[in-house]
Amino acid sequence: MCFAQAYVDALRNGDSLKLMQFKTAIEARYGQYKSPIGQDELQQLVSYELAKTDIQQNDFVKMHVLERFVDFDKLQSDLSDTAKFSLSNFLSASLTAVSIKTVENYKMGLPEKLDSEPAVKDFLENESDFSTLVRNDACQNKQDQLMRDYCIRQSSGPEVTNLFQELKNNPDNKSFCDAIIKEFNATKKVKQLKPICQTYLEHLASTIQAYIKKNKEELLNDFPKEKGASLVAWINQNAGKLPSKKSDNPFNLAVEKYLAVNALYNGLEKNDAMSSKKLQSFTQLLGEKKKLLNTRRDSAGMTFLKGLASVLSLGIAALCGLWKPKGKKTLNEMQTVLSKQI
Questions:
Q1: 212 vs 221: CA distance, rounded Å
Q2: What DSSP letter does each residue of 7-33 carry, written as one string?
Q3: Comparing C-alpha atoms, which of 101, 117, 104, 102 is closest to residue 52?
Q4: Cβ-contact 46, 93 below 8 angstroms
Q5: Which residue from 66, 71, 73, 322 is spatially nearest to 190, judged by alpha carbons?
Q6: Which of 99, 131, 199, 264 is the S-S candidate for 143 at Cβ 3.0 to 4.6 Å?
């Protein structure tokens, strides 16, 4: 199996994280022969590798749908610009690779391997066999057609959603569509979990600050205005001046809860990770922290836990044994279980 086939298979399985790694893999493979690799050169190398796979037009359509959903912020909303560029690069190269295959005897323009500096240099020349292949009329016509039919005519939100529905109607696309739906729903949940965590973190930070103001006023001067990592660092730096962790003190409970919820929130903020993985890690960590978070719940703590259960589904509420959700205003306001599919 050729080097790039694993990435085409990843596309068919809806594994966008694997696709984002293809650019890095190409740079690692060819960087020893050409450094730095320019953007046009990268495009040519990626197209070459994909042309050696069994990639088809249907795969290009999948890639177009996936890249558009990411750009619309429907999938993996915290991707870096580098990761988004990797997906766009894969999309463009897949268009070229599919188009190349319309040329008669196209394999004659594909070097068997590029494993030396001279070979890579010759390959990247404007008059190389591969460059000539890409400029072939049949290849150019196919590229124009794909660009026109998909990237131009079917690139808005509703149009891409319709394309996805068409893919769903074909059983051969089940793995891809199931993965996209899973990631789509996970991304929606991650987006909803973030403000719930932020609101509770602000409450806990205010509780901590109020205690410091009343009991340790000398520590107020360097109390961080920005929370999150800054407050965690402040807590660690001043550990010796704060109440002992062994003491039964409401301040200690607020600190421990802050550290726990901050860890939950940081997991949601992790860049270039699939939302489904974020959600899985979040649920696992929440289970580990459930006893702590369920200790001496005030109204803010109840709102926080109800919000999490609302997004994650009521199963997590039963797991933690937290409450009966009937008739609660807060739950009604936050009850968005996100069962709606694409």
A1: 10
A2: HHHHHHTT-HHHHHTHHHHHHHHHTTT
A3: 101
A4: yes
A5: 73
A6: 99
**d(C-alpha 15, C-alpha 70), whole Å:** 13
What is the DSSP code string of 269-322? Answer: H-TT--HHHHHHHHHHHHHHHHHHHTTT--HHHHHHHHHHHHHH-THHHHHHT-
| pTM score above 0.85 | no
Give dist(CA 256, CA 260) in Å, integer: 6
How do the pLDDT tens digits run along the chain, 342 residues long?
689 999 999 999 999 889 999 999 999 999 999 999 999 999 999 999 999 999 999 999 999 999 999 988 888 877 888 888 999 999 999 999 999 999 999 999 999 999 999 999 999 999 999 999 999 999 999 999 999 999 999 999 999 999 999 999 999 999 999 999 999 999 999 999 999 999 999 999 888 888 888 887 777 777 887 777 788 888 888 877 777 666 567 888 888 999 999 999 999 998 878 899 999 999 999 989 988 888 877 788 888 888 888 888 744 444 344 444 333 333 333 333 333 334
**Residue spans per domain, the chain:** 5-169, 181-334
Q: Is residue 183 a contact partner of residue 70, using CB atoms and an 8 Å limit?
A: no
Kindly list the distances between the CA atom of residue 111 and the CA atoms of 92, 114, 123, 327, in Å, as whole numbers in the listed order: 21, 7, 8, 69
- The single residue listed with the structure tokens 């891809």 is 176
